[in-house]
Amino acid sequence: MHHKNSIKFTVLFLTLCLMISFISPGGYYSYADEKKSATSVKESTTVSEKAKLEAQRKLEEQRKEFEKNIADLDTKLNALASVSKDTEEYIDTLDQKIGYVNQQLTVLDNQIADFHEEIDALQKKIDENQAEADALQAEIDAVQVKIDVLNREFQEKLSEYRSRMRAVYVSGSSSLIESLLECSDLSKLFTRYEMIRTMSKADSGLLSDIQAETDKIMQQESDLNAKKADLDLMKSDLYHKKNDLETKQSQLTETQNVIAKKKIALSVDKAESDKLFAELTARNGMYSEFRNEDEAVKKAVEAEIEAVIKGIKNPEDVTLATTSDREETTAEIQKPTDVYDRSDAVYNMTYPTNYRTISAGFPNYSSGQYHGGIDFPCPTGSKVVAVQSGVVSLVKKLTTSYGYYVMIYHGTDSDGRHVFTLYAHNSNILVSPGDSVAKGQQIAKSGSTGNSTGPHCHFEIRVDNQRVNPKNYLM
Description:
Elements: H1 2-22, H2 47-81, H3 88-171, H4 176-181, H5 186-284, H6 295-311, E1 374-377, E2 383-385, E3 390-397, E4 404-412, E5 418-429, E6 436-437, E7 442-446, E8 456-463, E9 466-468
Antiparallel strand pairs: 1-8, 2-7, 3-4, 3-6, 4-5, 5-7, 5-8, 8-9
Helix pairs in contact: 1-3, 2-3, 3-5
């Protein structure tokens, strides 16, 4: 009897061990030796990203340098204003400040462009990461469903196996030999043996099924943990990218506010500069251009002039073409003899007016701003003449920039470079595109049209559209 109890206890102990090895404290399964690893993601900085960061650093340095220069000029302006604003030095200093502010605004505009580019890139990455995270979450949900199904199947097979073990324990037949020895005849022995063999085979199959189900669950659980780890990394990356996005958007808004304030202050400074300069030139008669002309207007005018210059043909290539519109258009040369052909005699020029006083020279105003020609103050209606023979290539009547102006093509110098002259701010133009003009022939009457503080002749010499110092050529 004691021997039977010992066998029963052994069977029960082995059954419990098998159950414990499969069943977790929560009722399913556990992995005591499983190690959870986190993947650390290091974002490498590419060469292009380093170059971009360096460019941004230089932009910021430029902005700070301009800010310092502006502060220094403000100090100087305050000192000059305490004496008088009605001086050329005050106006020049104010114009220098305006120049620095314009440059600073350019830097800020570049920074704005960088912010927009970074924000767009971050938003695109966030959208991509969010889509990946959503897809991964869907995979996790699908795997969890599979695990739930496998757990139910596992529980069903385990329950069946428990019932089998419980039946063995209750029956008291703990071993095959003991069960066979209890048979009273040979027929019963063979019958019981066959039953026991069938049951053992079924039990063995049931154990195999339980083991297979356990393997499936463990694999699915491993996949699930890996996916959850990936999702956690994605969520962390998304969190940091969204923070970066908010920072960039805040910087963008702050920079836009700075630009708006600077533009308001700039418009006030420009208005003051133009007012003071107009009053100064009216007092001393040294008329010139206002120095704060709109950049977009200047670029548009220059683009048109450049197009005309590039469209001029060499004297040997000219045709007898004429123009249908002689009011405001460009023209081809009608006769090769109208212009110089590879001769430096083209530079033997006379003055465009009888007034030789210069109010603004080449290449800068007294403030340091660029000035592409020289200005000759003269009364409205004064004679303006062609400084050299040539063909009128462009006539324009603008309310801004050069105002009413004429451009003449004189041919090519010994190096084959195209030589042009330009006469601006006229009150009246006496020639049309395509007209051949002689040296000293009147082409216009002086005035103060366009961007002008008072009547004067603005004169330029352009060689292949590069402006040169007219004083080196006027005789």
